[in-house]
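User: Could you walk me through two proteins back to back? I'd like the raw sequence and the structure tokens for each, with a short line separating them so I can tell where one ends and the next begins.

Assistant: Of course. Protein one, sequence then structure:
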Amino acid sequence: MELARFRTQPYTCPYLPYETASLDYRIAEDMSAEAYHELLRRGWRRFGFDFFRPACPRCVKCRSLRIDVQELSPQGLAATSPSGGLLPGNVFDR
């Protein structure tokens, strides 16, 4: 059951200070497993009864990305910079 839904007022992004951030919230309890997984599939994150997702007016840099680990293969997944070099801290370059 959904108890509340709201969007925060815009604020300075804590990750990218030159961007404006905002969050959509849903407060819910007694949610079915199917509804829960659908929210996660659609980019919502969960903390207790709170579900939230970025709703930034001009930026999509922190949108959720879900990866099916059963299909994950390290071949071809090395993170690269725009110039084509490996980024530091890449899990697959160790």
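----
Protein two, same layout:
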Amino acid sequence: MTIGVCVAILLRRKIGLKVRGILQESINSIQIGGIVKLTKKIIKGTLFFESIGAVLLMIRFIRIRNRKRNLVRDLSFYISLLQRRV
């Protein structure tokens, strides 16, 4: 449900009361107020830690391969590795 809300936020759509109630149940929140803000924080935190992991993996694999390659291509490769893990 969090991913669906993320897409809705990116498309600038309003989050209805029904979806907020479902989010409230999935996050185990007592009150319905602030659910969308909490979801945004969850998404930002996840992206932050995933990007740190991608950078650390990139540095590690660059040392292993011991070749200089295009940095953008390597970064996109390691991000795709992290997404396959989920």
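Helices lie at 2-10, 17-27, 35-65, 71-85.

Let me know if you want the two compared in more detail.
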